[in-house]
Amino acid sequence: MGAEGGSPGAEDAGPGLSTSLAEGLAAVGGDRIVLDLAGIEQRYEALCRELPGVRVRFAMKACPVGEVLAALGRRGAGIDAASPGEAEQALGAGIPVSRMHYGNTVKSDRDIAAAYRLGIRDFATDSLEDVAALAAHAPGARVFCRVATSGEGAVWGLRDKFGCRPAEAPRVLERAREGGLVPSGLSVHVGSQQLTPEAWHSALERLGGVLRALVRRGIRPDQINLGGGLPALGYLDRRGHPLRPPLEQMFAVIRKGMASLRRIHGGPLEFVMEPGRHLVADHGAIRAHVVRLAERRRPDGQLQHWLYLSCGKFNGLYEMDALQYRLVFPGHTEGPYVPAVLAGPTCDSDDAYSSEHALVPVPRALASGDPVWVLSCGAYAVSYTARGFNGFTPLPYTCTGSHGRPCVPTDGRDGRDG
Ligand SMILES: *Cc1c(COP(=O)(O)O)cnc(C)c1O
């Protein structure tokens, strides 16, 4: 059967299914993403408790939904925006611009000017070219330099494209100062869905080294940005085993690293963090349906079951090549089960679990139209979706569970309100 971790029963579906999310999923009639705002708020509060004094700025690309931004904003969270478009959306959701920064090192002159006009005064950077553009188009702004990490230990490493080598960071911030900008700090990103405390340890050591070099050169930044990368808790690996990230240990390493950075700095030093996935992944799920459970013969003659779902790589499960999701089959709490390849509805062969994925146990009695809940897909589902590939429109979403407010059903073609 392969996937012993992927228990199909709702009762032990793991960290991705709270009671309120299950109620939200059961209440919707058709396919949609259900986001549990109360769960997202609780995860935010838990993070604030674990890392006291760290200001949280949600990396909104993980779930650019107005209700989610507003719920986090009401609790005091800010936003890590990666474009003027994101900043505008966050402003519309009621996040004050003073709680936003521009966290993308990649930006055109026009993007910088637009963000500056919106009132953003904090920018990430990692190159002399970007610093020159910031000096020209965001005069006097605060800039923090992103230091590259190896990305080792993460499911998605984010290497190469971002950050400068530690030895180059002081030069970048010196140039910022020469250009009339305020060299305000340093940032890192350990890689998305980072699974090892060691990666946090080495990132914090790296920051410490750069901070020492800055202090020697008379630059005393006032802020360290620890980036994103904190994990979702409900994913299975490709073989179907729960990932079980050692979250407590990571927090302990981060707290220790923060204390050490404060010692190196010697003055007041603030900390910011930009979690995306960690805040939303386990509090969102997709209510999809069975397209077909089919038994087909492989080229070598062996019989194999395929479970085609109404959602897949192009509508909600963009990250399916690196993971397995926990599944719940609400109408089928008992077997018998058959091992199947999971696939989405489109005519693209990438829209399926790969040959590196274990087969998934699915109820043999599944019929076309039966509901399926795909858990822990609150991150990067609304945002990573094709426009209507093969005529499959983006999934609409519903928010449930905050302040007793009613659900906000959305049915627009692009999944948004209005
Ligand atoms: C995407 C991104 C994040 C969020 O990453 P997660 O792994 O989802 O936490 C944070 N900061 C920056 C700069 C990013 O690009």
UniProtKB/TrEMBL annotation:
Specify the superkingdom. Answer: Bacteria
Q: Which Pfam families match?
A: Orn_Arg_deC_N
Q: Which UniProt keywords apply?
A: Decarboxylase, Lyase, Pyridoxal phosphate
Q: Which InterPro entries match?
A: Ala_racemase/Decarboxylase_C, De-COase2_N, De-COase2_pyr-phos_BS, Orn/DAP/Arg_de-COase, Orn_de-COase, PLP-binding_barrel
Q: Which PROSITE patterns match?
A: ODR_DC_2_1 (PS00878)
Q: Which CDD domains match?
A: PLPDE_III_ODC
Domain named Orn/DAP/Arg decarboxylase 2 N-terminal: residues: 38-281
Pathway the protein takes part in: Amine and polyamine biosynthesis; putrescine biosynthesis via L-ornithine pathway; putrescine from L-ornithine: step 1/1
| E.C. numbers | 4.1.1.17
Cofactor entry:
pyridoxal 5'-phosphate
The record ties this protein, via SUPFAM superfamilies, to: Alanine racemase C-terminal domain-like, PLP-binding barrel
The catalysed reaction is:
L-ornithine + H(+) = putrescine + CO2
Q: Which residues cross the membrane?
A: none
PANTHER family documented for this protein: ARGININE/DIAMINOPIMELATE/ORNITHINE DECARBOXYLASE (PTHR11482), ORNITHINE DECARBOXYLASE 1-RELATED (PTHR11482:SF6)
Q: Which family does it belong to?
A: Belongs to the Orn/Lys/Arg decarboxylase class-II family.
| UniProt protein name | ornithine decarboxylase
Gene source species: Streptomyces oryzae
